[in-house]
Amino acid sequence: QVQLVESGGGLVQAGGSLRLSCAASGSIFSGRTMGWYRQAPGKQRMFIALINSEGITHYADVGKGRFTISRDNANNTVYLQMNSLKPEDTAVYYCSIGVYWGQGTQVTVSS
Q1: How far apart are the C-alpha atoms of 101 and 37, rounded to whole Å?
Q2: Which of 2, 12, 23, 43 sees the fewest Cβ atoms within 10 Å?
């Protein structure tokens, strides 16, 4: 059974940082591109960043310069380091591999 489990969300003040983690079960992680997305209340889910199996990354404009995606292949985990957080970053953050999605982790940034 494929499972993606996000963690690391929480409440942080504007300007602060959080590190999100997404642990993948089974063989789904190996050789696959992984992505982070977020969905704010009343808005569509949007792409944040992705990383392929070779470590090549791509970011949406919203995360450039502030967010860093990385992966630990030995532990089947992908991370999203978020710095200089803004209130508009408040959303549920999801990781994804192919058609699989995690349950999401809430990030709330207070002003």
Answers
A1: 10
A2: 43
